[in-house]
Amino acid sequence: DIVMTQSPDSLSVSLGERAAINCKSSQSVVYNSNNKNYLAWYQQKPGQPPKLLIYWASTRESGVPDRFSGSGSGTDFTLTISSLQAEDVAVYYCQQYYDTPLTFGPGTRVDIK
Amino acid sequence: EVQLLESGGGLVQPGGSLRLSCAASISSFRSYAMNWVRQAPGKGLEWVSSISGSGVSTNYADSVKGRFTMSRDNSRNTLHLQMNSLRAEDTAVYYCTKASSSGWYAASDIWGQGTMVTVSS
Fold first, then answer.
1. How far apart are alpha carbons B51 and A55 in whole angstroms?
2. Is there a smaller number of Cβ atoms within 10 Å at the N or the C end of chain A?
3. Does the beta carbon of B5 lie under 8 angstroms from any beta carbon of chain A?
4. CA torsion, points A10, A14, A20, A22, in degrees to nearest 10?
5. Nearest to A104 among B45, B50, B105 (CB)
6. Which stretches within A12-107 are classed as H helix?
7. Dihedral angle of Cα A50, B80, B72, A37, to the nearest 10 degrees
């Protein structure tokens, strides 16, 4: 199984400041035939289902604000919120969909400092 | 509006059975793989199972293999999860999700609101 880890476990950031969450996979999630990273990021606010933010490691889902960006390749990935807003308080999960079992990271909680 | 609506959750005794359903308001439903993902209270996300767009192929987490069966009815745009031999560790909110492609090696771009399953005596 591909194990996903995230750091930090939690993050407190001032409004308008940058937040960065790291995600690492235990093996590469790049599919050689198309050179795509099979990595997604989700946001889950309290009492709500997760919402897809980023797929293919760096492609923003339609309707997602451009302050959210994804980067990285192979085994190391980052989700960056360029200017934290109050509505961004949530838990963020990375997920690999390169192989089954599809696996998620443990989550990173982001709140306001 | 594209949406998924789960139903069928509830309280069941250990060893019991439950059948979850997911009604999908999705055009070209048969074009997409579907998943079940669960979340135990206060915990993270765990993939449970996937089914191809045609319904011919399924895949399961080891933790549920042999106990859970996923199926779909493309004529009714519905998804099912038959859960047998339930254990306390199956207690979770179960989410129905739509994959962004016909295969399950894809991100989940639509999530339902979830249905709670509690396994307890």
1. 20
2. C
3. no
4. -10
5. B45
6. none
7. 30
**Tokens standing for B31?**
């074009």
CB A68 within 8 A of CB A80: yes
Name beta bridge partners: B28. none
How far does the CA of residue B112 sit from the closest CA of chain A (Å)? 7
Question: How many CB atoms lie under 10 A from the CB of residue A58?
Answer: 18
Strands A39-44, A90-96: pairing is: antiparallel
CB A88 within 8 A of CB A81: yes
Flag whether pLDDT at B38 surpasses 90: yes
Please determine, for residue A36, whether its predicted confidence score (pLDDT) is greater than 90: yes
Strand-strand pairing, B34-39 and A90-96: unpaired
Cβ distance A40 to B107 less than 8 Å, yes or no, reads yes
